[in-house]
Amino acid sequence: MKVVIGSRTLIGPNVQIYTATHPMNYKERSSGLEFGKAISIGEDVWIGGAVVICPGVTIENRTIIGAGSVVTKDIPSSVFAAGNPCKVLRKSEQNTCENIYN
Questions:
Q1: Is 22 a catalytic residue?
Q2: Maximum Cα interatomic distance, the chain, rounded to a whole number of Å
Q3: CA dist 61 → 13, 25, 74, 78 (Å)
Q4: Which helix (H) or strand (E) holds 89?
Q5: CATH topology of domain 3-91
Q6: Residue 94 pLDDT exceeds 70
Q7: pTM here?
């Protein structure tokens, strides 16, 4: 399945990007059925170390994903998002290098 990564995107160590998924119905799953969902990561994104990106997710431009996050849903542009599951914590445009984790 297709994974698109935009220009100037930074990806930390041990990031896992998964496109494969399985049916929720146990009968379909036991037949070995598997399918994929595309992932899109925008431009100027920063993905911290050990982030897991799940199938079908879009991370929009200029977004920062905190280390160790599990991204299960789409994340909008220009935000800082983190956690398990990953959620928006604040706008990222107002941050500087010195205060991003404060």
A1: yes
A2: 52
A3: 20, 35, 12, 6
A4: strand 87-91
A5: UDP N-Acetylglucosamine Acyltransferase; domain 1 (2.160.10)
A6: no
A7: 0.87
